[in-house]
Structures are given as structure tokens and as C-alpha cells.
Design brief:
Length: 231
Amino acid sequence: MKLQLRPGLITDSWELKLTALGLALLLWAAVRSEDTTRFTMRDVPVEVRMTDASWVHVGEVEPRSVTVDVVGPVGELIRLAFAEATLVVPVEDVEDTVELFRPRADWLDYEGRFESLVVDEMRPAVLRARFQPIERRSTPVVVRLEPGLETSARPLIQPAEVTVVGRRDHLDALDSVFVRVTDLEAVLDTAVRLRVETSDTGVTVQPEFVLVRLEPVAQVRSEPDGAALNR
């Protein structure tokens, strides 16, 4: 009788099968020895946690992931194989726009508790992150009318400029910030408190609100006697 293998028996779900094979080999090694076993976590993502309020992290950490060799009891290593881990780099004091960091075992954030695991090695040995200083600039405020609204009235804004706080590249992209007027009658000859719009700019403003009033432009006509009258 000729033995026939089902097509795809080996290739279907190959990642799951390789994982199962790896765990089986891990269990086999544990049975043969009472010593601890080594497990390698690959593609552990790297994140930056900022506590220095005068700088902001920009871009991605280079590289974006690390490889971690862990030694410990087989039971905990099996749980670790199915848990998520992240290398969180704490940044407390930035001195330059580019900083180098050596990854440390206590920066690893595991999903779950692992009391007996020991980090043996992390690769690569150096991480690079980029930063930009937080800056403050004075920026003029302008009025934007809701689509469909038109007026010849002159906008009066108090204060006319606000302090904009953010990354240098975000500030460089701004020549002004704006308040949105949706009701002309509400601001005609009456000062109304409106919020300065900052959505999609990546910056904050101080103060967040300004007073806006629309002042009608005086129309001038000539009388027969040549006198100019405002109306």
C-alpha cells in the first residue's frame, strides 16, 4: 500500500507549526536537564517615554526593534513566548537633538509577571533617537469666516497675537493661527470670546481664547454742497 501525503500538509500554517516545534524542543531540553533554558525574543518594539518637558521625541527610534536573549525556567519561558514585550526607553534629560542609548534589562515591559527570568543579552547594543526642543513664538491671530459668509467689516482681535508652543518644525509651518466666525450678527459691533483653532497643527496656544469684534466700515458719499457724510 502506497502512503500518500495530503497536499499542503507541511506548508499550511507553517509559522504555527514552527512555533510548536520550537516549544517541543524547549520542553525536551528541560526534561533532559534541570538547568535553566535560553529563549530569544525577536522584533521587540522600542518606544520612547519622555519626561523632559522641554524637548519632544520625533521620528522613530533606530532601530525600531531589538532582539532579547532571556534565561529562565522553562515554564516562564513558555509563557513569555506568548506574551507581548516592549522596550521602553525613559528619557529624562535631553542634551542634544540626537541621543544614543544602551538598552537595559529594566526597560523591558512584559505582559504579565515573570519573577525568575534573566535578560542575558540585547541586540543591538546602541539605540539612536532624535529630539526637537519645545519653542515659544508670538503668532498673529486672523479671522476665518464659515463657508458662505461674507462681510466687509474690519475684524478687531484682542490680543492680536498669541504665544504658540510646539516643535520647531511645527512652528516653522505656521504664519498665523485663526478663530472661526460662524455667526456674523453675533460679533458685529459686539466683542465675543472665541477659541483659537489649533487642530492638526501640533501646537498649543496661550491664551486659548481671544475677543473678536467686527467693526463695520464707514461708507462715505458726497453731498451736493461737497460735504462728506459718514453713514
